[in-house]
Amino acid sequence: MTDRTLTVTSRTHPSGTTVLTVTGELDHHTAPRLSRVLDETPFGPGAPAVIDLSELVYCDSTGITVLITAYHRAQARDSRLFLTGVGPDLMRVFRVVGLDQIFTFQPTVEHAANAARP
């Protein structure tokens, strides 16, 4: 049996943007961990968030559902949400299912923090 680990760290970027760094495997076993952190994330006007996926090694459909839920939550609260560090395999999945049309992608956290500025 493989060890399915996921770590989610939250920090505030100097710009005021909340940055969530996701490390490991995001699947049906570990997705609740990211969901809990997202539930505590202060989405709202003037409170953008970045989900940094540069250290994500695996993501299944449950993980993608958690990201979509975060997107909807941000939209409902008039907040901006950025995904950064998305690897080519995951980006291919986003493109195939059309999620590249809803998510806002930036290559790095710094790019996202700059894009989030009014």
Beta-strand residue percentage: 25-35%
Shape: globular
Distance between the termini: 47 Å
**Rg from C-alpha positions?**
13 Å
Report the helical percentage. 25-40%
Write the CATH homologous superfamily. Answer: STAS domain
Keywords summarizing the entry:
5 strands; 4 helices; alpha/beta; 29% strand; 118 residues; globular; Transcription Regulator spoIIAA
Tell me about this structure.
The chain contains 4 helices and 5 strands; from the N terminus they run E-E-H-E-H-E-H-E-H. It has a single domain, classed as Transcription Regulator spoIIAA, CATH 3.30.750.24. With 118 residues, the protein is an alpha/beta fold. The model has no long low-confidence stretch (mean pLDDT 94).
Which helices and strands occur, and which strands form pairs?
Blueprint: E1 6-12, E2 18-26, H1 31-39, E3 49-59, H2 61-76, E4 81-84, H3 88-97, E5 104-106, H4 109-116
Parallel strand pairs: 2-3, 3-4, 4-5
Antiparallel strand pairs: 1-2
